[in-house]
Amino acid sequence: QVQLVESGGGLVQAGGSLGLSCAASGRTFSDYAMGWFRQAPGKERDFVAGITWNGDSTYYADSVKGRFTISRDNAKKTVYLQMKRLKPEDTAVYYCAADPFIATMRSKLRSKYWGQGTQVTVSS
């Protein structure tokens, strides 16, 4: 079992920045690829960003490429999402996810473990 707890959400003006963190506990953190998903009201959950177990490869949705950065610290069992130049359409609940395979998150939009989510609201 892996437990994931997100933090760092909040309200920010368009054009601003916000950082999210996800702390993991339980099984070996470095066994898992990590990802961030988001779900806006009335919409399906979408993949936002993912990172392989060792941080060598990162992946982003086209809508956030160049504005968001995912990173991880295996020693701290934490994954981060730095968000810049935020837009109102980035408003959503952001979920941290852990899965043995990055492809499961990217291609199948599934994950073995999920956090509870943190709200990000971008005002115009």
Give the overall pLDDT as a whole number. Answer: 95
Q: Order of SSEs, N→C?
A: EEEEEEEEEHEE
The total beta strand count reads 11
Q: How far apart are the termini?
A: 40 Å
Q: Name the helicity range.
A: under 10%
β-sheet strand percentage: over 45%
Total DSSP helices: 1
Coarse shape: globular
Unreliable segments (pLDDT under 50, ≥5 consecutive)? none
* Main sheet specs: 7 strands, mixed
CA radius of gyration is 13 Å
Structural class: mainly beta
Description of the structure:
The chain is mainly beta and 124 residues long. 6% of the residues lie in helices and 51% in strands. The chain has 1 helix and 11 strands. Strand 7 (68-73) and strand 8 form a beta hairpin.
Summarize the model shown.
It is built from one helix and eleven strands; from the N terminus they run βββββββββαββ. With 124 residues, it is mostly beta strands.
SSE order and pairing:
Blueprint: E1 2-7, E2 10-13, E3 18-26, E4 33-39, E5 46-51, E6 58-60, E7 68-73, E8 78-83, E9 92-99, H1 102-108, E10 113-114, E11 118-123
Parallel strand pairs: 2-11
Antiparallel strand pairs: 1-3, 3-8, 4-5, 4-9, 5-6, 7-8, 9-10, 9-11
What key attributes describe this structure?
1 helix; 6% helix
